[in-house]
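Incident log entry.

Two folding requests arrived from the same account within the same minute. Monitoring flagged them as a possible duplicate submission, but the sequences differ. Recording both here for audit purposes.

Request one:
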Amino acid sequence: MKNLSLRQLQVFDAVAETLSYAAAAGRLGITQPAVSMLMRQLEADAGMPLVVRQGRRMDLTAAGTVLLQHARAILEQVRGVEDSLASLKSGRRGHLHLGVVSTANYFAPRLLMEFQRREPGVTFKLSVARRDEVLAMLKDHRIDVAIAGHPPGEADVEAETFARHPHCIVAAPEHRMVGQRRIPWRDLRDEPFIFRETGSATRQFLEHLLLSKSLKVNVTIELAGNETVKQAVMAGMGISFMSAHAVQVELAAERIAVLDVVDMPKWLDWCLLHRRDSQLSGLSAAFREFVMQQGKAVAACSL
């Protein structure tokens, strides 16, 4: 593809993101015929279709999917150059886009602020999403680095552990089991249990734990998100399995209590994730070094 231009890649990226020539034109501030012309040139140079229409729906072909991965990597490098030059001109140190799973958001802002104290002039964007969405953003070069648990084995990302992630059983302070010592798991069998929504990493962790103990609990309600679950627990609707990061404020205010269940808390790892196909450099590399050195202290929480 010797005639490939950055403008063609920018147009293709916008088309792939929106799956619409009209929407891509609006995003880029050009006309729809200009988008159509640049896409025809790109497909002619590639020697094969990159998008296909099925009725009113547009989708990428196999060739389009391959090109998109390379296009976003190239555009990311270009943005890095632009950022570096803009930083030299303005005195700003650079811009970092961090993606985190929702539970990591309880300490991620503090992590960014601690990093900014070391690197004055740095600016940030923080995107919070479900685990699968964060991994997709990382794969598609829409974020620089991410914080989550260990990725699936097939994910094309590097995971570096920097802190522990405790999970516990929580209840309202007036719950009858609060204050009891070494509560057996079998005693939780008939307790009203509040579950996270299907697909939640916290729920998957709990279900794996219950399976390992051959225990079935009384699921009375399923709720989406840590904040909703906390409100239900504080209202006395039942007990729940939660990340300790999510209840730090409520524990300090004595609005939620941790039950002393045998073999609890259960631990996962917090990891800094980055793509294997590109080496961290500049601000991303500096942030990685900071997280590896200071992330454990910043992400520490009480039980």
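Request two (distinct sequence, not a duplicate):
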Amino acid sequence: MDDTRGAEGPGRAPDCLKCANFRVTWEPTFPRSCTVFGIKSRRLPSLEVLAATGRHCPAFELKAGLR
């Protein structure tokens, strides 16, 4: 596992829950968001980025204190 990307394995999207840019919103229909891309979604923002661009999220930044 590449700890700097927060992914579970090669070729997998980074784990948004470990990203410094991930936020939980108060909106029940769009509970997850990304501050970099301004995404609000039911799905994890990294999955939205992958669906829109065909590439894994380039803005992943590991939260401080995580490995």
